[in-house]
Amino acid sequence: MIRFENVSKEYPDGTLAVKTVDFQIQEGEFFVLIGPSGSGKTTTLKMINRLIPLTGGTIKIQNKKISEYNIHELRWNIGYVLQDISLFPHMTIEENIAIVPEMKKWESGKISQRIDELLDMVGLDPSTYRKRKPNELSGGQQQRIGVARALAANPPIILMDEPFSALDPISREKLQDDLVELQKQIKKTIVFVTHDMNEALKLGERICVMKDGEVVQIGSPEALLHSP
Ligand code: ADP
Ligand code: ADP
């Protein structure tokens, strides 16, 4: 589904953030990128939807180079959930979720139905939350909306950059559990960045360990736990 071939990234200031990374992510796989701060996880993630241009190598999605996709086509087919609260504060929950479906010119009845469906999927009652503004929700609820928004137009790929790390431990655990359950239903290709090994082991089907811009290990949670 997603293939990195000798991918590297040097920032204009000369920082070599990613050095020759090679891996493949299977369709429907929950793939976790883990490593200490500065190891190149976010850079790796953001190259997938071309938020950051690569400086070497190739990334392919379904055997097509990302550079060959129309940028809108690429972004609309890749949901993105950020660490920080990224909802638009002046817009209601339903307006936030509707952004991509509206850009794709879905008709309003279909969008409305989809919003109800998405709120149910992330465990928030539609009639209570649709008309609220983001600041009327807890941090955990806002991140649930972030997940709903990323899923809105049913993209096959979801990128998540430390989506739960700003939450209190109890909310974080609940969202992790719920994401595991949700993934069983939706079976998306998920690329999830974290620096928390417990989170990686709990969520990941495969875990890719990065250090200083390189992949140092890649494998199942079991394989990682039993490696020296
Ligand atoms: P991580 O997500 O693992 O914390 P990042 O991908 O954010 O790592 O960063 C990898 C390296 O690239 C770090 O040394 C970071 O300081 C550097 N870096 C990130 N963004 C930029 C940028 N825009 N310009 C220069 N260096 C950057
Ligand atoms: P993250 O928490 O995802 O690792 P950071 O806090 O490292 O992100 O970076 C936040 C922003 O600053 C990003 O857009 C990143 O590209 C940029 N950035 C990070 N490190 C540097 C750097 N050394 N020089 C310039 N920009 C940087």
Automatic annotation (TrEMBL):
Query: Highest taxon of the source?
Result: Bacteria
- Quaternary assembly: The complex is composed of two ATP-binding proteins (OpuCA), two transmembrane proteins (OpuCB and OpuCD) and a solute-binding protein (OpuCC).
User: Which organism is this protein's natural source?
Assistant: Neobacillus notoginsengisoli
Q: Where is the ABC transporter domain?
A: 2-228
Identify a single GO molecular function assigned to this protein: ATP binding
Class of enzymatic activity (EC top level): translocase
What family classification does the UniProt entry report for this protein? Answer: Belongs to the ABC transporter superfamily.
E.C. number: 7.6.2.9
Q: What is the reaction catalyzed?
A: a quaternary ammonium(out) + ATP + H2O = a quaternary ammonium(in) + ADP + phosphate + H(+)
* Keywords attached to this entry: ATP-binding, Nucleotide-binding, Transport
The answer to keyword Ribosomal protein applying to this record is no
Tell me the protein's name. Answer: Carnitine transport ATP-binding protein OpuCA
